[in-house]
Amino acid sequence: MSFLDRFRTIGPPHVEPLRTADAGEAAAIHAAGFARGWDLIDLQAMIADRAVRADGLFVGKVRRLVGILISRSVLDEAEILTLALAPSMRGRGWSGMLLRAHLDALAMAGTRTIFLEVEEDNAPALALYRRYGFQPMGRREAYYPRPGGKPAAALTMRRSLA
Ligand SMILES: CC(C)(COP(=O)(O)OP(=O)(O)OC[C@H]1O[C@@H](n2cnc3c(N)ncnc32)[C@H](O)[C@@H]1OP(=O)(O)O)[C@@H](O)C(=O)NCCC(=O)NCCS
Description:
Layout: H1 3-8, E1 14-17, H2 23-33, H3 40-48, E2 52-59, E3 64-74, E4 77-85, H4 94-108, E5 113-119, H5 123-131, E6 135-146, E7 149-160
Bound molecules: coenzyme A.
């Protein structure tokens, strides 16, 4: 970690809504977490979409973005579209802070049920979702293509926020 990185990570993380100006950093974090990334235009459109809630996990005095969580709502249901932390920021328990803040905000806005899909062998994500009360509700065989490998199955999960 460079001196500048150390300086930029000073202070506890906090969660706040993403702004369209954050789309570039958000796209980089997404691309580091998933085989198929979203580009700047995708992220800008999502952040601006009124049906989407896009939260960021930030550290440091210069508001460095280190995690993103984006969901889309229809009536009183929402679906998590993506959750990712920058690789160097994983394994510190910070994803729980981001997820909890996001779920609280959705519940305050009237969401009663939230859904997501996750790769069946994504152990950190599954541990996180289970800890926060998500229950498996289905399985989709060979759902996620993997470059040079067998496609992975998806688990669908739900949690009540009512
Ligand atoms: C999923 C992700 C957001 C989790 O963030 P994180 O900071 O690494 O997670 P945390 O440190 O908060 O740990 C979450 C849980 O996973 C567990 N965990 C971490 N690494 C693990 C591993 N390799 N195997 C099993 N469990 C693991 C932790 O112990 C913790 O469980 P606990 O709350 O019961 O103690 C992060 O790994 C990531 O960005 N991955 C790439 C993108 C991705 O897969 N997103 C999810 C798509 S659905």
